[in-house]
Amino acid sequence: MATATDGCVDEYYYPVLTYNAQTNPLVQPVAQHIYNAQNGGLVTAWGVPSVYKSNGQPLTRDATPGDDTRNRNVACAGVTLLTGQSCDEFPLATTYQGAFFQSDYSAVAVPSSANSSQGGLTSAFNQSNRVIDDDPFYVNVVLQSGAVSW
C-alpha cells in the first residue's frame, strides 16, 4: 500500500467517501442502509451537502480512542443479530455525529462481510484523504441498481 506524502491542506474542501456497490458488491447492504438513512430515514441527511438536501450536514471524523465503541454500543443496543451478521450504524461510529453524541441515527443488521468491506473502504479513504480528528467529509453511495444517494 502506498503511503501519503507531504501536501497542502485546503480547509474548504470536504472529501467524499463513496461506497460503490457496483464496483464492490460486498458493500451493497451497507450502501442500502446509508441510502435509506440519507433519503428520509433520518431527520438529518448526514453526510450530504446542503446544496443537495436542505437538511444535509457533513460528518466529522472522531479519532478519540473509545468513542467508536461508545457510538456502536448506543446505536446497536436494540439490534438483533443472526449468525454471520454485524450491526451497521449511520452516522458512522467513527464520527462526532454517532449515536453516543446525538439521537438521530439508524442501525441495522448486515452481513459481517459487508461491514468489513465498509471498514476497509473507510480506512483507505481516511488515509488517502488525510482525514484527521474533527475533519468534515461527506458520504455518498452507489447502489448496485445505479441509484446514488445524492
Instruction: Count the domains.
Output: 1
Give the CA-CA distance, first to last residue. Answer: 30 Å
Computed Rg: 15 Å
Biggest pleated sheet: 3 strands, mixed
Average of pLDDT:
95
Summarize the helices and strands and which ones pair or pack.
Elements: E1 16-20, H1 28-41, E2 45-46, E3 56-57, E4 59-60, H2 67-75, E5 85-90, E6 106-111, H3 112-128, E7 136-142
Parallel strand pairs: 1-7, 2-3
Antiparallel strand pairs: 4-7, 5-6
Name its key features.
two-stranded parallel sheet, 20% strand, alpha/beta, 7 strands, globular, 3 helices, single chain, 150 residues, 27% helix, 3-stranded mixed beta sheet
Question: How would you describe this protein?
Answer:
By secondary structure, this protein is an alpha/beta fold. The protein has one domain. The protein is built from three helices and seven strands, in the order E-H-E-E-E-H-E-E-H-E.
